[in-house]
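Worked example

This section walks through a single chain of length 493. The input is the sequence exactly as stored; nothing has been trimmed or padded.
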Amino acid sequence: MHNTKRISPKYKKALIAIFAIFLVFDISFSFVQYYHQSFDGDVVENVAPANYIKPILNDPIGLNVLIKGDSGVNPNRFFSLWTYKTYFEKVPIFLQNFLSPIDSIYSSAAIFKIFVQIGLIFLLSLFITKTPKFWKFNFLLSALLVSLFFQTNVYSIYLGIIDSSITYVFYYAFPFMLLMLYLVPFVFNKDIQNKKILNTTLRVLAIPFAFVVCLSGPLNPGAAIIISLLALLRIVLKNIKSQQNNQAINSKKLFIAIRNIPSHYWNYFMPLIILSLYSLYIGTFNSMWVSEEIPIKERYFNIHKGVFNIMTQKLGYPLLVVSIIINSILIKYKYKSEKGTKILYNFNWLLLFILFYTLLLPLGGYRPYRPYILRYDTIIPITICLVFMFGVSTMYLIQSVQKPFKIAYYFYILFIIFIYTNADRNIQLNSEKERKAMTLIAQSKDRIVKIPKDYKVLSWHNINSPQESEDKAKLLLSWNIIKEKKLFYNSNQ
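Given that input, the structure is written out below as tokens.
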């Protein structure tokens, strides 16, 4: 059943216009929220960059790690680092044709964050509706539903996708958006094995794009391996099922099923698997936080604490999970159909991905700032899966639910929309002190400037001595915020 087909063209056009207006408003509001977020303390070392970061830029695919066994900081993140560095070298300077130097850097950060947010919303809606026609009713409704979960306020530290830290956006959300983009041909094309043009394109682009995807951040390699293996397993099971005999699964049947995997799938997934394994290997040579490591057994023991923390501190995450469960129950017992059965079948595979991804996370090492392993940033792939599950099941039920439950379900969805929208209604002026401090430094005639206590400038903490601001001052100079080199530090009072 498809209720949208019953809407008259006149009302449908009106709804499309309303959806588009709300979506544009939501994205514009997010931009303003991002514009007022302060910079994190890792910006300078990545953009300047610090001496210990430079070897990554000189060794894009980590050959020194492979050949010489050299340890370094995050050796498998070249493409994110290069993009980060290049972006903040070029974009603020360009924007200064229209904006002040200080406004240009905050605008640059906000533009990139909103770019990633729009990209993820578009890809999620593409996966849900199987159409790239973003002006259509279903696509816009889907985009509105998934946009609820891009939170910047109350729920952001548990249900965060676009981090307040621009560094984390470049290393977490942005790379995962690239992985989703890589997966578009597999998700979007029903019969990928019958697409000759797609096959040629995959052969040409799969390997270089897989390099970018796998050497862009800490989340992608593990997620890519799990997705690829589950996709191939799904095809194998389909091939086994299609074999015309009633014999139990044996080695011969399994061999035939594997042999019958279309070559297009191998062309598509093998570069991702091989390069992800390579990325994970060179990632083991990461010298950062080595002294802080704890035993793997203890890391696994901490997982349940992470789950408990995410599910009990704020309403955002548990409401998302409960909504998916309710939708699944309704599909299974009330509105079952061929399409509904397929949705629930796909949910099983997504739950397998979530399980395996969770079990892989402790192997990625320990960080003292996320002692429970699971945190909003490390579980972005899980969050994206859950948002997809909510979106696809809600879209199905909106199109399938019948009287007398139709109005009740619509009010239920409106209630969920209200909860998430209300939680994210404020604009927090987090960058106000940082902006004032930069203005004070820029306007001061002193070569060493004292700024008020707790006025952090490109730092996680107060700067106790002028020498600590050396690299920060160089970056401010490169951004034209100051006209000559000035050091600065925080007052103790």
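What to look for: The first strand starts at residue 448 and ends at 451.
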